[in-house]
Every structure is written in structure tokens, then in C-alpha cells.
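Q: How would the C-alpha cells look for this protein?
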Amino acid sequence: MKNKIFAVLAGVAIVATGCVSTVTDDNAFATTWSKDTVAGRYNRTVDQVYQASIAVIQQNGVMLTEKIPHDTTNTVRSLLGRVNDAKVYIRVEGIDAKTTQVDVQARTKWGVSDINVVHELEKEIALQLAR
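A: Here is the predicted structure in C-alpha cell form.
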């Protein structure tokens, strides 16, 4: 009887965890579906915001990959880094010629959203652009 209850609980745990879509159009392991993304819009070019994002990731952690998604134009760029043992996904997208949006998302290695890191990095990108 105990084995059956344990098996049911294990099955529920497996179903409750899963994959979520990231801002970089990849999938990541998740155990919670809480808010994990913050967006910011700036009156700067895509290149300026992207370079600021790279600088912020390198100052706070390590950058793992950079990419331009194949299904988009050159006005969309993304990168993956690791800050405070959390994977950080950043997407930089040109809204128009003078406006750029940056989306920052973070998940810990256990799949839990890390909104504190997200807020901190998004603010640091804005401060980097102000310099």
C-alpha cells in the first residue's frame, strides 16, 4: 500500500515539473511557473543594448552562449549566461529604429525562478546604457 501511494506521489511530482519556454526561444527545466521575466524598453539601438547586456553578464557572472535566432531578423539577439548559480536568458529585440526591448529571465539549477537576479540585471543594463 505504501509503495502505491509513493508511486502516485512520484507520478504527480513528475507531471508537476516540466519544461518552460525561455525568452531565447529555448526550453528550460522548471519546477515552478511563477513570474521569471522582466522587460525593459530603451531609446537606444539594438547594438547598444546588446553590448550593455553582454557587459552586465560578464560583470556579474559568466556568459555561456550568444545567438541570433534563425527564425527572426538581425533585430533580435539573445544570450545565455550564469549569474549566482542561475541560468540567465536575455533577449534583445528592436521594436523600431530607435526603441529596443530587453527581456531578462533567470532560473536556478532546480528550475525555480529567480526574480531578484532578473530585476538586478535589468536595472544594471539600464545603468550601463546611462554611462
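The longest strand covers residues 86-94.

The CA atoms of residues 73 and 93 lie 10 Å apart.

Upvote if useful.
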